[in-house]
């Protein structure tokens, strides 16, 4: 082998390894999936909806622990997968009287979306700390008596999560 080629092997290998590591990190860590599978088997595009989901998380659970933020996102996604609710993130979020923060406009007033966006990505990537909950509420706030007929699964922070 020509001596010039031997000197190039190690730098070329290092460059290939660094590029591979960077690509792996980009595609596998903290990146939201491009589509959300639904019960009907038709994926729902989430590119524009992740911001909407993050806004809802910020408005509904911005002061909750991180796990509670992911849990609120998981409830929305569980509803998308359920035949009892609309089949897209935006349809679930905009369903009349579904979320107080949509009714009172708080969803459009939130400004710090860093943690809620990570929570939305974690929920979209499959983390469901609610174990399939379809509802959540703060027991310290006045709510419809109907919501108390739901089976409570868990409590995270100030919210209870139920089916």
TrEMBL record:
Pfam families, per database record: Hydrolase_2
Domain Cell wall hydrolase SleB: 64-162
TM region positions: 7-27
Keyword DNA repair: no
Domain of life from the UniProt record: Bacteria
GO MF terms held by the record: hydrolase activity
Keywords: Hydrolase, Membrane, Transmembrane, Transmembrane helix
Protein name in the entry: Cell Wall Hydrolase
Source organism of this protein record: Neomoorella glycerini
């Amino acid at each position: 082998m020509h001596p010039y080629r031997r000197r190039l092997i190690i730098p070329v290998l290092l460059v290939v390894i660094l590029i591979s590591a960077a690509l792996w990190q980009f595609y596998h860590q903290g990146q939201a999936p491009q589509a959300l599978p639904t019960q009907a088997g038709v994926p729902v595009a989430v590119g524009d909806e992740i911001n909407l989901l993050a806004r809802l998380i910020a408005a509904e659970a911005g002061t909750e622990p991180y796990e509670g933020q992911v849990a609120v996102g998981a409830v929305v996604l569980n509803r998308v997968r359920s035949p009892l609710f609309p089949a897209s993130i935006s349809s679930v979020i905009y369903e009349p009287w579904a979320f107080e923060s949509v009714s009172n406009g708080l969803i459009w007033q939130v400004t710090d979306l860093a943690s809620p966006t990570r929570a939305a990505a974690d929920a979209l990537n499959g983390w469901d700390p609610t174990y399939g909950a379809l509802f959540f509420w703060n027991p310290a706030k006045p709510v419809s008596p109907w919501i108390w007929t739901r089976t409570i699964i868990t409590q995270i922070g100030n919210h209870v999560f139920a089916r």
